[in-house]
Amino acid sequence: MDAVSFLDLNLATVVVLFLVGFVGGMVSGFIGSGGAFVLTPAMMSLGAPAIVAVASNMAHKFPKALVGAFKRARYGQVDVKLGIMMGVFAEAGVFTGKVLMTDIRSRFGDTGTDLYVSAIFVVVLSTVGLLVLRDALVSRRREGGAAEVEHKTPPLARWVQSVRIPGTMMRFKSIGDREVSVLFIAPLGFATGLLAASIAVGGFIGVPAMIYVLGVPAIMATATELVVAFVMGFGGSMFYAWDGFVDIRLSLIILAGSLFGVQVGAIGTTYVKDWVVKLIMALIMLIVLVSRFFKIPVYLSDLDMIESLSPTLSGVLSGVSFGTLALALLVGAGAILGALVKGMARHRRETRAEADLASAT
Amino acid sequence: MTDPTESHRGTQPPAARRSPRRVLHKARRALLPGFLSGGLYTLLYYVHEDIRHLAERTASGDKLYFLVPIVIAFAFSFAHGWFTDRFWDVLGLRAKH
At A296, which helix (H) or strand (E)? Predict the structure, then answer.
């Protein structure tokens, strides 16, 4: 095996990784995943080989998910049993995804895998992103932005919960102590892992699947996704560590920033309503989708399906695509901070009003 | 990592929760995890070349130390996660429930 070339670290590299880690951590703590789609290309553009960037990203992801899951478990938002079940099937999805990617690469080269990844991005993000956005806006309108509204189980989830398959039923607290067949959880977990192996953000399918197919409330789904991410990330990291691809120095620098961020994101979930989580998730997914459109001409040119683009134009389009990914992360982080500040101010006003009322009586 | 005062937070008036004495108390509680996390990162700075060497050995076929990065990641997540939790608490950023 060829020697692995690890990145030489300098102050600028450390600062960039720390900051991207912080923002990615905040998004992860809030929506259960995120950051990886920027971190891996960021590490590669700093000079890390692709395999080292993917492995090091994964080795920072599982401890971050662990800390986030612990934090949100303290708020009663985590369904550990569901997270582990989904995680085990997701692990199978990760390994299948890796085999699939390797196979596509050996048949069609790097452009083939790029197109495969882009196609997954476009299909998943456009369908799931729009579905989540529509649902968030409907919930917001129904709620009128005021009083707490009881979680409503989506129609598909009601049907899934009604199906009884003897010997496969498991009870989960996140769906009101109801039972669901493991046969429904298996493909959802598997798809989450497959997506994680392809675009590094399994949560884009795992969280909506838990919400709309199993009937888990959005805040609990994003928290449970952290358990799934831990199980997947731990298995994946072992796999990469065995081959010596993990540059733990990179992982720990990102972790330094992301653990500050994951705490903020987790705290943020206690101040917002279910639809806010969905809205921010949809926002990030749709901006990530836009970033793919800038890359499509580059891939088509590489495959000689359109007139070949000049290297400068290809570079500009790739740069704009990466910039849009970074924008998705920043917009998500900004929206989380905005929701947190507004929620804290509202809570402070309510607490003060309660204290005034108590002292008056 | 559990904060024993957490269950009383919702019932305390905001002024009591942010009094200088209380902030100082919280800052003191952040010291131990802060030193632990800082110590680990300082150690990483001094031994990072050795860690890189271990990874290169693993990549070249010697699997004796392949678990080292995983163990390191767990140790840092415990120490630094503990510290970041206390850090935001000192700054007054805490959960609603």
Answer: helix A274-302
Q: Please give the interface size between A and B, counted as residue pairs whose CB atoms are below 8 Å apart.
A: 124
Q: Would you say A282 and A129 are in contact if contact means Cβ atoms under 8 Å apart?
A: yes
Q: 3-state DSSP call for residue A6?
A: coil
Query: Per-residue pLDDT tens for B18-38?
Result: 688 888 888 999 999 999 999
Question: What is the pLDDT, as a whole number, of residue B82?
Answer: 94
pLDDT, residue B2, reads: 42
Chain B residues with CB-CB distance to A347 below 8 A: 96
Query: Looking at beta carbons, which residues of chain B come within 8 Å of A273?
Result: none
On whether residue B10 sits in a domain, the answer given is no
Q: Is residue B95 part of a domain?
A: no
Whole-angstrom distance, CA of residue A358 vs CA of residue A90: 51
A152 phi and psi angles, rounded to 5 deg: -105, 125
Instruction: Specify which residues A181 forms β-bridges with.
Output: A169
Q: Which residues of B touch A78 (CB under 8 A)?
A: none
Quick check: is B1 in a domain?
Answer: no
Question: Which of A:39-98 have CB within 8 Å of B?
Answer: 59-60, 62-64, 66-67, 70-71, 74-76
Q: How many helices (H) and strands (E) does chain B have?
A: 3, 0
Number of structural domains in chain B: 1
Instruction: Give me the domain span that covers residue B62.
Output: 16-90
CA distance A255 to chain B (A): 8
Q: How far is A71 from chain B (nearest CA, A)?
A: 9
The Cα–Cα gap between A270 and A327 comes to 25
Assess contact for A303 and A109: CB atoms under 8 A.
no
Q: Is the pLDDT of residue A339 over 80?
A: yes
Q: Burial, A263: exposed, middle or buried (Cβ in 10 Å; 0-12, 13-18, 19+)?
A: buried
Which residues make Cβ contacts (< 8 Å) with residue A268, sequence separation at least 6? A26, A29, A30, A336, A337, A339, A340, A343
User: Tell me: the pLDDT tens digits for A111-132?
Assistant: 777 778 778 878 888 898 899 9
In a domain, B8, yes or no: no
Reported as type and span, the H/E element at residue A53 is helix A50-74
What phi and psi values does residue A177 have, to the nearest 5 degrees? 60, 30
